[in-house]
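The protein record filed here.
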Amino acid sequence: MASSFTHIIAFKYKPEATAEAIQEFEETFLGLETNCRKPDGTQYLTVRGGKQICTHPPAHGMQSVFIVEFANKEDEKYFHDHDQAHAAFIPKAQGISTDAVILDFCPFQQS
């Protein structure tokens, strides 16, 4: 049985990024849930996110955090390598952020 796969990404925005530009960026990221589809049209991921609110260091200046969940690693690979909506999103991320932290994990296997 395939294991679920979680992709976490946090962004630090450029100092000149306006509140409106950040909001539009965040809405676009959340919209990947609707816009990312497999070739047969099926939805294959979920997205949630919010403002980084941790008060414990080190937060490294990250301002927004998103969690993208896939049914399996193969779906994440499709997202990363082939999904056109994701590919179109990457320049937007590069244009508004100065840094990002990306973490991926699969759940620990219980025996």
Observations:
- The CA atoms of residues 30 and 47 lie 6 Å apart.
- DSSP finds three helices and four strands in the chain.
- Strands lie at 5-13, 45-51, 64-70, 97-105.
